[in-house]
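> example.struct
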């Protein structure tokens, strides 16, 4: 963050202190038997991990207790229509000036005054709008979920984290790594931090019987085509894999700013007949079912939803040992953890699996059982419902 943004954030902090003195502790009236209104604030509803978490959470909240609205800051995205099929309103915030919302998020304020939510729940990328808007409108509860970070952060960003945290009732982290970072590096009060790991619909992602006679193999990745996902390392690793196991294909599912760079890397390594770029897809369960191995080459992660989906589908995984991946993948049991940016080591682990069909089956089964036990969608939804109710009741959890 440059000095101009830092000045703006500091100005916002001073303004917020003045507003706090004026508004005092005034709050909306108690719920009194009516449904609890929850407003989720997110940048987009694109086809990506965080957005799918919000989609799965909002559509599965108890509709007898909660009424949900989603506000998107940048654009609707393809998941918006899917969300609306479940009776959830999706509202696009009107275009806001570049810097003014950092001090006075006027469009969010307008929407809050119209909807009158009991809870504002923001997600990564929206923390600098929501707490300020919530305080200006005297919303009873403000919650923020941090889904992942690109490290390391600058001192100015850490300063801003501390600023937003002051006006947030609860900060939710999705992995132990993020929890430790927020407590030990950003120095946030652990009493206001709660860890709720992402969960997947284990009925949607089911284990399929594996082939035992076919000699060809399919490796896959589902991830945005962005630098943080580091597809180039995977492609370099795959180039080494097919030297040992030539009857193998790589499926790359997703879209993003790195598509051209990825295409050029594929062409340079003469892998065009082996690597398929499938773009954004809605049939992820079906695509996972045809994979033998799932690979995640990210440079950083929270709790990767696609990693959980692959394991729920009974797939062994080779994933970089970053962020929350080590909590999801048990090394040498449900898959392999490898250092980021090391294609040779990644290739070595992929080859080890490809040479042992029994190991593929064994690790895949253990991975699915792990997701069933620790990362179910029901467990995640129940944890958020409990958080909402406890925050409204003033219970410090």
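> example.seq
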């Amino acid at each position: 963050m440059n000095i101009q943004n830092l000045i703006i954030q500091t100005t916002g902090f001073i303004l917020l202190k003045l507003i706090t003195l004026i508004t005092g502790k005034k709050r909306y009236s108690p719920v009194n038997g009516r449904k609890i209104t929850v407003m989720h604030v997110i940048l987009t509803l694109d086809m990506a991990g965080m957005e799918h978490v919000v989609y799965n959470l909002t559509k599965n909240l108890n509709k007898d207790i909660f009424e949900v609205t989603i506000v998107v800051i940048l654009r609707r995205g393809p998941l918006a229509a899917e969300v609306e099929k479940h009776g959830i309103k999706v509202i696009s915030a009107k275009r806001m000036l570049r810097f003014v919302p950092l001090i006075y998020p006027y469009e969010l304020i307008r929407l809050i005054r119209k909807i009158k939510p009991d809870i504002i729940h923001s997600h990564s990328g929206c923390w600098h709008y929501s707490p300020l808007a919530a305080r200006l409108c005297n919303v009873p509860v403000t919650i923020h979920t941090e889904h992942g970070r690109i490290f390391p952060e600058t001192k100015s960003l850490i300063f801003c984290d501390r600023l937003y945290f002051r006006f947030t009732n609860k900060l939710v982290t999705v992995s132990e790594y993020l929890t430790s970072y927020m407590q030990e590096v950003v120095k946030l009060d652990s009493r206001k931090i709660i860890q709720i790991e992402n969960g997947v619909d284990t009925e949607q992602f089911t284990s399929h019987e594996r082939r035992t006679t076919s000699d060809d193999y399919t490796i896959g990745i589902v991830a945005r085509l962005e630098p943080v996902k580091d597809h180039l390392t995977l492609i370099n690793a795959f180039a080494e894999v097919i030297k040992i196991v030539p009857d193998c294909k790589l499926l790359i599912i997703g879209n993003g700013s790195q598509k051209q760079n990825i295409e050029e890397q594929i062409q340079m390594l003469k892998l065009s007949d082996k690597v398929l770029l499938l773009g954004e897809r809605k049939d992820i369960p079906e695509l996972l079912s045809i994979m033998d191995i799932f690979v995640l080459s990210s440079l950083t992660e929270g709790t990767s939803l696609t990693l959980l989906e692959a394991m729920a589908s009974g797939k062994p995984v080779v994933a970089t040992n970053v962020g929350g991946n080590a909590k999801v993948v048990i090394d040498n049991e449900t898959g392999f953890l490898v250092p980021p940016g090391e294609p040779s080591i990644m290739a070595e682990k992929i080859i080890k699996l490809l040479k042992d069909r029994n190991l593929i089956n064994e690790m895949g089964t253990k991975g699915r059982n792990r997701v069933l036990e620790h990362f179910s969608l029901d467990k995640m939804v129940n944890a958020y419902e409990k958080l909402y109710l406890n925050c409204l009741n003033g219970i410090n959890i």
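> remarks
Residues 25-30 have pLDDT under 50 and may be disordered.
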